[in-house]
């Protein structure tokens, strides 16, 4: 009978041709190891001696129940997905007869509804107030703050993609500038850069050279840096954007848990409102499926219906219909 540790090694070997992201592999390894360890204890064997055929629905259900005691719903869902993929591999390799994960319940997947800014004109308000110096800081840097906000608002870049942009990522001739973004799984895409963003970046880079006494910047230099001229990290970007929201007075218009991703959702939602197709959104946002872009199109349709439904004329009609039946009004 095949040992779990051996099957896991073969599973990761099978994933290599697909070139999954390092983070994905690390997550799979952690989830398989932790829950595999719980399952081994439940089977009363050392983890190194756990056999794949011992991973029944009953054992895995109990292991996930214990795992769920001190893990959030998102972690449980991620672990369930990892184990489901592993057990599907085990079935394909004829290590087990069927996938036992059908017997393991899991949290409902979170809503994929886009989370742009709540309220019209919020992005404009945010940029105008930050440009006017609304964010209070020990070492204020308006030009850098504006680029950190505007870049995802006009390119739809994820935070990790934006932090990975270097000066060499920009290219193209005048009037046809583009920026190369590296997304999930190492996939790259080229996104158009219009004049206003180009000028904003130029002003920021000039301020950066003046601030740090530099005569120039290499193409390998990161686009975003902190106030010590070190590459801006994820935590720093999160903090910066949260501070901008607060000082601009728009923090109450940001959906909980979205933060930097709100800027990406704002980009996509407004494009959908202006007629961008699901296919165009897929290409611009770097989605692997057109279905994700469709969420923005559908969400926009709902928002338009809600906006149309707020017309004062509906209130008048409601009043008329409640005071006199439709058939009486037409007679």
TrEMBL record:
PANTHER family attached to this UniProt entry: PHAGE INTEGRASE-RELATED, TYROSINE RECOMBINASE XERC
UniProt-listed Pfam families: Phage_integrase (PF00589)
Limits of the Tyr recombinase domain: 112-309
Database matches in InterPro entries: DNA_brk_join_enz (IPR011010), Integrase-like_cat_sf (IPR013762), Integrase_catalytic (IPR002104), Integrase_recombinase_N (IPR010998), Tyrosine_recombinase_XerCD (IPR050090)
Organism expressing this protein natively: Actinoallomurus iriomotensis
DNA-binding listed as a keyword: yes
One GO-annotated biological process of the protein: DNA integration
Gene Ontology molecular functions: DNA binding
Key words, A-Z: DNA recombination, DNA-binding
Protein's recorded name: Integrase
Keyword DNA-binding: yes
